Amino acid sequence: MTWKAEIDGSRCIASGMCAGIAPDLFALDAEHARPLDEEVPEEERVLDSADSCPALAITIRDGATTVGPRP
């Protein structure tokens, strides 16, 4: 099973936390981070990436349900 990762470019401050936690899933470009693929594995480090984003720019979805960032 997979989740979908979205990064809000208007919120992203390119801190690089997501790419540091999961470099095989997220990349840091000049101005923003981006998922390397829309679909990401259902793994704790995906949620950790969303939780660690200082701008809360990463949303992880399981279908219509938001699973990350966690409250």
- Following the backbone from N to C, one meets helices and strands in this order, namely EHEEEHEE
Structural class: alpha+beta
- What share of the residues lie within helices? 10-25%
According to DSSP, the number of beta strands is: 6
Main sheet: strands, sense, barrel? 4 strands, antiparallel
Task: State the gist of this model.
The protein has 71 residues and is α+β, with helices and mostly antiparallel strands. It has helices spanning 17-21, 44-52; strands spanning 2-7, 26-28, 33-35, 39-41, 58-62, 65-68. The chain has a single domain (2-68), classed as Alpha-Beta Plaits (2-Layer Sandwich).
What would the keywords be for this entry?
Fe-S_cluster_ET; transport; metal-binding; four-stranded antiparallel sheet; 71 residues; single chain; alpha+beta; 34% strand; Alpha-Beta Plaits; two-stranded antiparallel sheet; globular
Please characterize this protein's 3D structure.
The protein is of the alpha+beta class. The protein has one domain: 2-Layer Sandwich (Alpha-Beta Plaits), CATH 3.30.70.20. It is built from two helices and six strands. The strands form two sheets. The protein has a four-stranded antiparallel beta sheet. Strands 2-3 form a two-stranded antiparallel ribbon. Strand 5 (58-62) and strand 6 (65-68) form a beta hairpin. The model has no long low-confidence stretch (mean pLDDT 96).
Blueprint of the fold:
Blueprint: E1 2-7, H1 17-21, E2 26-28, E3 33-35, E4 39-41, H2 44-52, E5 58-62, E6 65-68
Antiparallel strand pairs: 1-4, 1-5, 2-3, 5-6
Protein name: Ferredoxin
Organism: Streptomyces sparsogenes DSM 40356
Keywords: 3Fe-4S, Electron transport, Iron, Iron-sulfur, Metal-binding, Transport
